[in-house]
Write a structure and sequence with these properties.
Layout lengths: L2 E5 L4 H11 L3 E4 L17 H16 L3 E10 L6 E2 L5 H4 L7 H11 L7 E11 L5 E12 L15 E3 L11 H7 L1 H12 L1
Parallel strand pairs: 1-2, 1-3
Antiparallel strand pairs: 3-4, 3-5, 5-6, 6-7
Bound molecules: inosinic acid.
The site of inosinic acid has 14 residues, from strand 3.
Length: 195
């Protein structure tokens, strides 16, 4: 029988990617599919803490095994920022705008004149089983932040991130090319190993 797992997301792209990686042995269902419309808290100061908070919330309120993810862009010269605050970087620093454009603008401003451009995307996935067992795994992709955005595909910080071993930004790659090396893929593969 297939193992049923809730993935604490309603993002169709993430669902499709994760279903494909985990394969036929698992039935992966979204929050919507279990009727969860809760405003799940993401108040922890780390990616691990937030992923666990979300997975625990769903597992305890809905009596199921659940995994949740949290991703951040960690920039070496900024001491790991924006990290857990990646989605709301500009807003959290009092800059105007709440979107990816504003976040990238602030990132490039904070890195102006900085020679060390090393950065990584890191995804943490937390699994909380219906028997209370908890596991966290992570996946990362190393790379660098360029000086000005390039490319139109993808989302978030993709136009300013060039993964190691390539010269293109994530936004200049097809979804397949990006997904083949992405932080989320690596975290999902790590999750598969503990399932
Ligand atoms: P989430 O945890 O997947 O919601 O990601 C948090 C934030 O990290 C997003 O709002 C984006 O700003 C950024 N982010 C996550 N994954 C990616 C990616 O693959 N490319 C670019 N930015 C990303």
């Amino acid at each position: 029988m297939k193992q049923r797992l809730v993935f604490a997301t309603n993002n169709a792209h993430k669902l499709q990617e994760v279903r494909q990686i985990l394969g036929d042995a698992f039935e992966v269902v979204s929050l919507e599919e279990i009727g969860c419309r809760d405003d799940i808290p993401e108040t922890e100061p780390t990616l691990e803490g937030n992923a666990l908070l979300k997975a625990r919330w769903v597992a305890s309120h809905y009596g199921c095994s659940c995994f949740a993810d949290d991703t951040g862009l960690e920039v070496e010269a900024l001491g790991g920022a924006p990290g857990v605050r990646s989605a709301r970087y500009a807003a959290s620093e009092g800059e105007p705008g709440h979107d990816s454009e504003a976040n990238m603008r602030l990132l490039l401003k904070n890195l102006r004149g900085v020679a060390d451009r090393r950065a990584r995307f890191r995804t943490v996935m937390a699994l909380v089983r219906d028997n209370g067992e908890e596991v966290t795994v992570s996946g990362r992709v190393e790379g660098k932040i360029i000086e000005a955005p390039r490319g139109t595909d993808g989302f978030g910080y993709d136009p300013v991130f060039v993964p190691e071993g390539d010269t293109r930004t994530f936004a200049e790659m097809t979804a397949e090319e990006k997904n083949a090396v992405s932080h989320r893929r690596r975290a999902t593969e790590a999750l598969l190993r503990v399932l």
